Amino acid sequence: MQIGTFSNLYIIKLNAKIMKKIFLYLIFYGIIFSTYTLNSTPVITKEEGGGFYCVGESALFEIYANGSNLIYIWKKNKQTILISTGNRLELNNISYFETGVYTCAVVDTVAQDTAYSKELLLYLGQKPRIIDNPKSLQVFNGESATFSIKCHFTDGEPRPDSIQWFEGQFPLVNSNNIQGVNSNLLSISNARKSDSGRKFYAIIKGRCGSDTSMIAGIFVRERPPVYNLQLTLKTIMLRACAGNSAVFNSELHGCSKDAMYQWYKGNSPMSDNIRIHGTNTDVLTIDSMTVDDTGFYYLTAFCPGINQTVISDTAFLETYVPPEITEEIQYLLSIREGKRFELSIQAKGTPPLKYIWLKDGKEINAPDSNFFIFDKASLSDSGKYQCRVKNPCGEVSSKIAEVRIFPLLIDISEVEGNNLHFGINNQNYGYLEFDTGNIHAMIYNISGIKVGELPITFSETIDGKYFLKPAQMNLSSGAYFLLIKTNKGIIDKKIFYIGGF
Prior knowledge:
6-stranded mixed β-sheet; elongated; 1 helix; Immunoglobulin-like; mainly beta; about 50% strand
């Protein structure tokens, strides 16, 4: 074990007691300059980083360690992502691709030993979303109206102030007839005619942002006088797919057959047209439904014999839209083995939409989502993929995407002294069309500085590999990048080490 280096030290043959005093004297007054480089394992003294972040933010990892000539090898999910002499790993504008477990290996190049950090987990959240907006309501004078929203938070549990209902620009506060201003349910009790036309909306907030709901209104109708007349609708809630027909039937009691009927949508009287029939009868029919037909309907009946008008309850009609693909899947992907890739589509239609992924015409075990992520591509992932989107009104299939997974190009078979042996695997690579005269093998250090270029001397073996003959590069110990570059650009790169790291 090397203890240190001494300068300006004169050793005299004196007894041990005198020598010890001289030695301490020289150390105290700085005459001895010792570098004491003990060959011992590096020690990590502090680890920082990981935790929760929002998409688009920056994340910082820091490792503090004792040792000499340290090199930091950063890994994500056990895959090397950075080799540096600095103790920091900074990730900017992070996305879900950065989610994972990060570790750092601290290498002492003098002691030739390594210390390993603990696992630092980085996970992400997006801004909260309102997935179900409030609906406008019609009530009678004195009744209660309840508006509701459904929220999705990806940044932890909602805080007490995560939801706030507004009227215009002003936040609502709980009062005698208004409750739930900080919840997903806003209740207006004992509604009056003066409340008619009021409009409300909600804003939700989270760690990563906010979202605003659509505006919903309240319409208050006067209760009709109580007569012996009774007019009821047989269907109060009707949901049907676009293109189908909707039929509302009614029953009138206490009036002769000469009653006069009028159907309303919202507060507007309806009239017959090419799609809508029976607006002045007891049966309303709407053919070839569209999204515009969604809304509230009610019926009035005037009985001439007693000169009285009766109003039915309110019914709601909702039109469901079948799924439609708005952005197709990428039709061809060429992916290197071990790389991360994603298949995705965009679709619209009445929720919930169900996504079914197929490979080579057969359903596969995949998330019910519009995107399918492969964290680490394998050769078995090659094939033809398709996504089928369904809802209660139908289904639609995407175009077919062909995924080709290619094996790794560079095959470093041996590092012996300063000689590097590697091969370029050209098996089943019709897209490469090797021209050995245009292939360059270059070596860069971890700072990105080019330190050497290997001679372009290739020999093709029987198994389809091009091998570069060993070359003397006189490389010092350390970590390096090997880049294979053609006239079409960089086709592969790989890290290797000299000096028995």
